[in-house]
Automatic annotation (TrEMBL):
PANTHER family: TETRATRICOPEPTIDE REPEAT PROTEIN 6, UDP-N-ACETYLGLUCOSAMINE--PEPTIDE N-ACETYLGLUCOSAMINYLTRANSFERASE SPINDLY-RELATED. TPR repeats lie at residues 27-60, 61-94, 95-128, 129-162, 163-196, 197-230, 231-264, 265-298, 336-369, 370-403. It comes from the Bacteria. Keywords: Repeat, Signal, TPR repeat. This is Tetratricopeptide repeat protein. Residues 1-23 form the signal peptide. It comes from Nibrella saemangeumensis. InterPro entries: TPR-like_helical_dom_sf, TPR_rpt, Ycf3. The lineage of its organism: Bacteria, Pseudomonadati, Bacteroidota, Cytophagia, Cytophagales.
Amino acid sequence: MKRYLLPLFTLLVFAGLNGHVYAQQSAADYFENGISKSKSGDFPGALQAFSMAITMNPENSASYYNRGLAKANLKDHRGAILDYDRAIELNPKDALAYLSRGVSKSKQEDHRAALMDFSRAIELSPDDPQAYFNRGASRSRLEQYRGALQDFSRTIELEPTNANALYARGITKQKLEDYASSLADFSKVIDLNPKRAPAFAGRGVSKVELNDFNGAIADLNKAIELSAQDAESYYFRGFAKSKMGDYKGAFGDYERAITLDANNYQAYYGRGFTRSKLGDQKGAIQDFNSAIELNNENVESGKVLYSGRINRNILDNLRNAVQERNKINYLTTERSEAYFSRAVSKNKQGDAKAAILDLNKTIELNPTYAEAHFTRGMIKSAQGDQKGAIMDFTSAVKLNPRYGEAYYVRGIIKHSLGDENGGCLDLSKAGEVGYTGAYKVISEYCN
């Protein structure tokens, strides 16, 4: 099997065509075009090319796999997973497909399913360090720290200079309270990359836990020098200074930590402690109150109409950016086109109610008029009738399965109503059928 290597993430490899290359020359041309566009970073173009290859040769697993990679690069991980599913169905022995699907599942916070994919990838390719690293990351997210430690260690056996694995193993050892052993991992990372701030911060935290406060402050000084916006480094340096009795210095660090992260209840507690030591009991009490309130914050679970991250204002802005589909057509005997165009004009004049009446008549006369369903859905959404709008967009895509704008607007409405998965799948479909504007929304709201 021919393989195409591309620098996608640090682990994804573009698969090649199978034995259908010569039998399906036109499909092969689209496939090669997709590979070329992927190499140049034109992932929307690559996606369309692979889609054409799939249309002409729907049994080629590599086309689905590579389209999945293109979607993943566009941060459309839900859509990518669907393509990886099909690639695996066609080629169950492709370790890369399991590995890539696991990555996209991880991006969707589905770590248990991702872990299963990484395990299958390891079964098929037992010497791939990336598969062990990714499985270790999933195990860590699931708080399976001993299993994660084994995976990171295996990664390092296969790739001794893998700084990411060394750092991850150091953090995992901290989770297991093996602070002394973590020092060597962080030190090795620093040897490999002397400007990696998190490694200095991690080693500083371990030194705090080992009561080496001078050493901790030295490491945290370096971490802050390299990354001045890291609230945690200020907090732990403040803690180390507090332990050494430097309350004024600690106060400044806690203050900075709170400025960078107003929800750091531990920093409020630390600042309150230093204020008390410095004689400011009133300020100390206020900080202790904040620490208690932030740590026990209860979120009310009332029913909200627009419960997704896309609120009503964002929905309106995203929807209104979609251009209408009103092109001149031959006027048929039932005159549905005239009703449709009159509806568009009435809506532009601000008479949405009259516009909907004309669109109702349009659809009554011509039930297969996809643009009429779409336009009525747009007006209903603008009027706040989101459920009615979804019904119209659903009709539009049934009549025209490649109606990208309809998938797009239905997707942002679903998302705004709290159906993030359904909304993002619609956005993925919109991008797949050519409405590339969907990928900006996917990038911002589906990850």
